[in-house]
Amino acid sequence: MSMSFNLNVIEEFRANGGRVGGPFEGGDLLLLTTTGARSGRPHTVPLGFVRSDGLLLVVASAAGAPEHPQWYRNLLAHPVVRVELGTETFDAIAVPAEGARRKELFDAVVRTAPKYGDYQAHTGRQFPVVVLERPEAPPGQPREVRSLADKLLEAHTWLRAQLRHVRAEAQAHVPGRPAGLGLQLRQHCLAFCEGLSHHHTGEDSAIFPALARSHPELAGVLAQLGEQHRVIGQIKEELVTLLAGIELSDPERLRVELEWMSAELESHLDHEEAELLPALAGIPFPPARPGPIGR
Ligand SMILES: [Fe+2]
Ligand SMILES: [Fe+2]
């Protein structure tokens, strides 16, 4: 599929609430935006999708080409992706299925969209089947985000839930088991690490400096919290190193690292909430836009 063809489809999709004509007419199409494995830049492609048993599935068929498409290589490096579906846009975690599960899902795809079976029959490369998991709002999340305190709690709730989930998967993981949970664990764990980095970078670069100006009495607390970010950042780096291989060879080391992460992170989040929520509750979020000058 040529670049300009893709660009036209993307433009048409966005202009028409997710509907496109031409070769895609009547097909189920979504836009997937991944983050470049090397460039770090957003990369959007139109893709056919299949729904099966409540799962949203895409197949890295590249129309039968011998190599995996770029978007698949990108999602292995950065599992958090953006999905545009109809008029909806949401973030998802991309999890390729493995082993018997992959086969079961691929068979389900082919029953709905036989062209994938034709492509697969003409290439030696096994097409990855990717589940686009839309994270559910965990319980205890504020219903509506109105202040920076709500925003912080929302992020912390996601981090706690994601880490709990990853630890449970790591406990269940046995290398070489036919069910093949390795890739799933890796994607979930990487997504957690990316979410954590993003959150702490936002605190270090924006929230903490703003609080230091408005609440000088918090200087000592902010320094402690910043130091905890550095410690947690080091554990995160070790997790990312362990996850660098697609196959997890040493689940025990990962489990140990995750337990350490959990202890440090839980105490950090509790500490941060106790110290900062009162000050953050007074700051509206999203921030009010300044009106045009002269009004
Ligand atoms: Fe935080
Ligand atoms: Fe923090």
Structure description:
- It is a single chain.
- By secondary structure, the chain is of the alpha+beta class.
- The chain has two domains: 3-133, Pnp Oxidase, Chain A, CATH 2.30.110.10; 148-280, Four Helix Bundle (Hemerythrin (Met), subunit A), CATH 1.20.120.
- Helix content is 52%, strand content 14%.
- It has a seven-stranded antiparallel sheet with strand order 2-1-5-6-7-4-3, with helices on both faces.
- A hairpin with a 2-residue loop joins β5 and β6 (88-96).
- The longest helix is centred in the C-terminal third of the chain and has 33 residues, at 182-214.
- It is globular, with a radius of gyration of 22 Å.
- The termini are far apart.
- The structure holds fe (ii) ion (2 copies).
- The site of one fe (ii) ion has 6 residues, from α6, α7 and α8.
Task: Tag the structure with descriptive keywords.
295 residues; alpha+beta; Pnp Oxidase, Chain A; Four Helix Bundle (Hemerythrin (Met), subunit A); 7-stranded antiparallel β-sheet; 7 strands; 52% helix; globular; binds fe (ii) ion
Task: Set down the secondary structure blueprint.
Blueprint: H1 3-15, E1 29-35, E2 42-48, E3 50-52, E4 55-59, H2 70-77, E5 80-85, E6 88-96, H3 99-112, H4 115-121, E7 129-133, H5 148-172, H6 182-214, H7 219-242, H8 251-280
Antiparallel strand pairs: 1-2, 1-5, 3-4, 4-7, 5-6, 6-7
Helix pairs in contact: 5-6, 5-8, 6-7, 7-8
This protein binds fe (ii) ion (FE2) (2 copies).
